[in-house]
Specification:
The protein has 450 residues and is of the alpha/beta class. It has 18 helices and 13 strands. The strands form two sheets. Strands 7-6-8-9-10-11-13-12 form an eight-stranded mixed sheet. Strands 2-3-4-1-5 form a five-stranded parallel sheet, sandwiched between helices. A hairpin with a 4-residue loop joins strand 9 and strand 10.
């Protein structure tokens, strides 16, 4: 049974008797159904689950439900014996995006107050973006991600006290002992291969079979492509094309989509593909990083959508496409192989799961910095450079960024394989694995201290 940090969030919400209905969204195969089912069954004697994808493929009992009364009648046909009192009954509406009218209906179910409700959806971000009558004030919207590196460590035997000890080292800027560092780097490299999708992590723990892990990752990648097929034919082909471009794009220096390469048509602009990019982002299968050329705080004031980067949502999916069964370049750090794409993908997904909005610095004169996030402590901008090789102390772009007197910046960060935490000319150097503690105003009760 995998530990998931979001479990405490779900549990606290249900125990608090919050009058809003919790809506969990996220990409396919990240464990939404499992964790909601687990918590709900532990807290409520009467557990009712309705999977709208299964219903749509079979009986279609809920397909034409338009009102609260319609819903209760339909529900009684499948779970009438479990429809008890509010205090002991919870109804889990899974894959709610399959019947979009239920998003609006949640408001009326909440007002009727007959049972406790919780909902989730794999393409919920897409559905919400296309829904004009979202019941604001009636729902609490929460995005879930695959296992981050901290959760991966716990899955591999690290206790909570061990994680707390690591975080204390991070906060006090004390480097780990060489043996501990080697252990952390070994697991980090394995995370590059396995990623954070629950089926892959469970398979890694139980069998250590790379071929089995890679097959799961291939199947999930195909699921993601198939989901795009639910759009109209023209959009489907463009969505799939952009998604299939991501691995090769990640190998480039700039790591961003060249719009004219999507269909091989000159003159196309980002505006021609807004819907396709939005789908890839809102579905949770990619993480967006927006360009900033002249930063201000907060960063959302200066983003440039035309220079968007997209990272795959899971590093295991990317390493499967780039390396397949050959894990030697990752595990043994072959010097001729650049692992920068994998490292940056981990950092993007980790920062995103910790609540950060992601940006990168792109300036024709000063170069590019991998990531920018809001530095809430100093009301400034925090530049982050990610290095996978030995030349981690060579970083002209972040140096120029920090020297610019017009930029709201007081410090910078470089993440690398090096064990030592050190501070040189406004830059703090951290081992790459400590990105797991770069918390925002955290959902889990701790703030980032760099």
């Amino acid at each position: 049974m995998l530990y998931r940090k979001i479990e405490s969030f779900i549990r606290n919400h249900l125990v608090s008797k919050n009058n809003k209905i919790l809506l969990i969204e996220g990409a396919r195969q990240i464990g939404k159904t499992y964790i909601v089912r687990k918590v709900s069954k532990e807290l409520f004697p009467n557990y009712i689950e309705v999977n709208f994808v299964s219903d749509a493929a079979n009986a279609k009992i809920f397909e034409n439900v338009k009102s609260v009364d319609d819903f209760y009648f339909a529900l009684s046909t499948v779970a009438g014996d479990k429809m008890k009192e509010k205090d002991n009954t919870i109804v889990f509406l899974d894959e709610i995006q399959e019947y979009p009218q239920f998003i609006t209906l949640l408001k009326f179910l909440r007002e009727d107050n007959r049972f406790e409700y919780i909902a989730s959806g794999s393409l919920l971000g897409v559905t919400l973006a296309e829904t004009t009558s979202i019941p604001i004030g009636s729902i609490l919207h929460k995005r879930m991600y695959q296992l981050d590196f901290e959760e991966f460590l716990i899955a591999n035997g690290f206790s909570q006290s061990a994680i707390d000890s690591l975080e204390e080292k991070f906060r006090t800027k004390i480097s780990l002992e060489p043996a501990v560092h080697e252990k952390m780097m070994d697991l980090f490299k394995k995370y590059l291969i396995v990623g954070g999708l629950p089926d892959c992590v469970n398979t890694f723990i139980s069998t250590r079979n790379v071929m089995d892990i890679r097959q799961i990752q291939t199947d999930i990648t195909n699921f993601y492509k198939a989901d795009a097929g639910k759009r109209d034919e023209a959009r489907k082909l463009k969505i799939r094309r952009i998604y299939e471009m991501l691995p090769s794009v990640m190998q480039n220096v700039k790591k961003r989509i060249v719009v004219k390469d999507i269909e091989g048509i000159k003159g196309k602009r980002y505006a021609n593909y807004v819907d396709e990019f939005d789908y890839l982002i809102n579905s949770g299968i990619s993480n967006e990083v927006k360009a900033v050329s002249t930063p201000v705080y907060p960063l959302c004031q200066t983003q440039d959508k035309n220079l968007l980067k997209l990272y795959m949502n899971d590093v295991g999916l990317l390493s499967n496409l780039l390396f397949r069964f050959n894990t030697k370049p990752i595990l043994e750090t072959v010097r001729s192989i650049n692992l920068g794409a994998l490292y940056e993908t981990v950092v993007a997904s980790q920062l995103k799961s910790l609540g950060h909005n992601l940006f990168y610095y792109d300036n024709r004169n000063n170069g590019e910095v991998d990531f920018l996030i809001d530095d809430y402590e100093n009301l400034a901008v925090l530049p982050i450079e990610v290095k996978s090789g030995r030349d981690y102390m060579i970083h002209s772009a972040i140096d120029r960024f920090l020297r610019n007197p017009d930029y709201p910046v007081v410090r910078g960060v470089v993440l690398s394989n090096d064990r030592e935490i050190k501070y040189v000319d406004k830059i703090t150097y951290y081992p790459i694995y400590f990105v797991m503690f770069f918390r925002s105003t955290s959902d889990y009760g701790k703030d980032m201290i760099l």
